Amino acid sequence: MDHHFDIIDAHMHLGPYAQFHIPHNDAAGIIREMDRLGIRQGWISAHAGITADAERGNEEVAEAVRAYPGRFVGYVVVDPQYPNEVERELARRFSQPEFAMIKLHPGLAKYPIDGPNYEPVWEVARARNRPVLTHAWTDCPFCGPAPVRRLLNKHPDVRLIFGHALFPEIFDEAAELARDFENLILDVTTSNHCYGMIEHAVETLGADRIVYGSDMPFISAAGAVGKLLYAQITDEDKAKIFGGNARRLFEEIKP
Predict the structure, then answer these.
(1) Would the pLDDT of 22 be above 80?
(2) The pTM is what?
């Protein structure tokens, strides 16, 4: 795709998913799609990691990052159902250059984002200034706006990316959280593309606290690129959301 934006996809996955077929889900397939759409870099967590096996998923991510230097950045995933392994896996993976951030999926883990088993995540995130991307969803007892608010009240200095924030059902609450907590960032990842949501989000919150994400290969990135590329906002705001804000987050990570 011919455009002049530097695109960083802050919400990508890797590998097959248990409930349905995902084509081209390996690293090579994702890179082909990134090249087709003009996406320079993707921040990835493996489907295996957010579902059944965090350690295996993290290893799949490490292999992909090594295979395509500079094109992928790895999220460390931890499983709160195995609390004795959370701190160990964080320490292990952050000793490897393939990993820079943390990804949580409290909904699939069936564990609240503000629960005690996630405490090592917030300690590491604060100490190293590591952004944490969390799946979040309306009315979810584990990662809806209410538990996210409880978490941020406890840890207001954590740099948290609120995944799927531009679904209409959740945006108003997500935007209210972002106004209350300056370290909360919203991502645009949705599986439907509602007319005017990008414009509404920028008008409500401004472009500086929004990052682009697609959920690829779980769903195609073409719609995600298109909804931002053709949104009726300024090119300056598009550049911030497509890559500028994510690049700033990455640059602020402590070694």
Answers:
(1) yes
(2) 0.95
